[in-house]
Amino acid sequence: MAWHADLADYVALRQVTSLALAPDGQWLAATVQAPGPEPATFTTSIWRIDAAGGPPARLTRSAEGESGPAFLPDGSLLFTSARPRSGEDRRGPRDDGQVPEPGNGGEPGDGGEPGDGWEPGNGWEPGDVGLAGDGGPASKPKQALWLLPAAGGEAELVAAPPGGVAGVATARGALSYLICVPTLPGVTSAEEDRRRRKARDDAGVTAILHEPGEALVRFWDHDLGPDCLRLLAGSPGGGPPRDLTPGAGRALDEQAFALTPDGTAAVTGWAVGDGPAGLRSEVAVIGIPTGERRTLMSAADADFERPLVSPDGRLVLAIRSEHDTYDRPGDVTLVVAGIGGDGAPRDLLPGFDRRPLSAAWAPDSRSVYFTADDEGRRPVFRAGIGDGAVVKITTDDAAYDCLCPAPDGAALYALRSAIGEPPAPVRIPLAEPAAGPVRLASPGERLEMPGRVEEVATAAADGTRIRGWLVLPGGAAEGTPAPLLLWVHGGPVMSWNAWSWRWNPWLLAAHGYAVLLPDPALSTGYGQAFIARGHGRWGEAPYADLMAITEAVAARPDIDAERVAMMGGSFGGYMANWIAGHTSRFAAIVSHAGLWALDQMFGTTDAPYHWSRVFGDPVRRPERYLANSPHLHADAIDTPMLIIHGDKDYRVPVGEALRMRWDLLSRGKNVKFLYFPDENHWVLKPGGIAVWYETVLAFLAEHLRGQEWRRPGLL
Question: What is this structure's pTM?
Fold first, then answer.
């Protein structure tokens, strides 16, 4: 369909965000995001995608949304939702705007009593407790665990702990599930958890106490605590789930987990202290029902994350990330270990100079499929467990995610996207992958882009090849050159290679701008040495690389070299701030969630220990702070700037924007500040996204096209 130039139409597009394959391989459960019944929020629903290519069908449609689909071996589907169990109908509209009729599988059912509590007799009644929030009727509904029967029909409530359900995993060969549940510290039953939540609510208490040994206070956009996460194991209709980790404390914060195929053990990430204020992740195995825990993967200088159990139950796969140090960036690889703990984890990718991002076991347990950034793409690779051979499966200009191997081993299902294509489900035939992926019917629309995309490259000052993507508007030509926007990615250890709904260059191309998406030093997909070029020296190689490729592109006849602006978010915002203090090349600069004063930011971000490994202590070892902090160059800035920041950004706290604005205003600089009091690092609400782009477009029009500043109507 045609490109949606209107921002309201754009944010209303359905977005396919995840896939899960049914045990029989006949269909996939897809999570699809779209604006909810309330226009101020997005919500998600679950759709059925036919593996043979038939039309997609929506399975769930409550107003609260559904997510986290996970199949049981009998084909029934577990998911999480804050939908009501009975009473007021809060379901969302159909695609035609009509409320669904009862009995179509889109409404909550009355079956599936999960039992009385974590232990028998503890008084957990799902009907009156599970969705009540933090103990009071005015509290926000919590996510509960629901089951959609394999034969269809109404969804059944399975588990509804007072604090909600934060995640779910299922066993491949047993009717067993594992849920991650927020609980207040020290409680021994769901009833006690409910009482304590109500007491906090009644007293108006929201305070959280953090004690020594708790490295994290917040993460990205949410507070950690007062809840502590626990893992509960159960089976639908099999009574109350069993608490496996009553003394976990903060060990399960932001960790992934899985079940063995027979459902007898949980394999999970487990956070432990790393020095007086640091944190690292291990992999632990926890027996069911004993709750006995043993460490399977651990190293003093690395994190082990996203564990996956092989289909035959013998091996555990994990991503091992070496810690960065002051001298060098840590490497990332896949490791495997026997689940019985016989031997140290073995590197599955020795000599492979790319960083794995996601992985999935082949059904025969003899190989692993994984993705990794590679030269501006994100292909699928296969690694043999026995011989260590790595083979690239896909070779197109695309990025793959959500790998789902077919049970017969003949195909691999995945989400495929590219700079110019939104994510869509595909089938990759493994017998003949060179034939290319087969597109499946998708709940999301295929869009006709308002221009074209080309690959560009140049040589940096040290001779290193620097490449990127150039998005060109439809009218860009030698006689009608387009103004250019340099857009620097975040990370910094990442790459421009996939579609982004949030950072979308086509919204700018639709207004006539060419958009350059380069991968400078620190980017992934070019090997460890390419990352090391900028390690601890953010203001050197990345800056030089960006300027080199910008000038190379600006010299093209279809680009107007006199009308060039720059924009970036997160690390890209850092580069915006750094560039502003080191060159007057750009007519305007947009800095979103940018780092300004490094010594300030690294002490107030959500994970200070990570940055201290690279930059050191600002008092004891200030050299890198003095060499790389943009705020020290405020006097040199003469480019008009638009600063954007959300108050709920805990990765780059809003104090960076507030201090930057003051530093520039007090020096008489030309600066605007777009502030989102209730948004996070990315700005993710439909209305916030639209206002973000409206403001950026108005700012660019003022400084690249000479138009009068036009304040967005909702501001």
Answer: 0.91
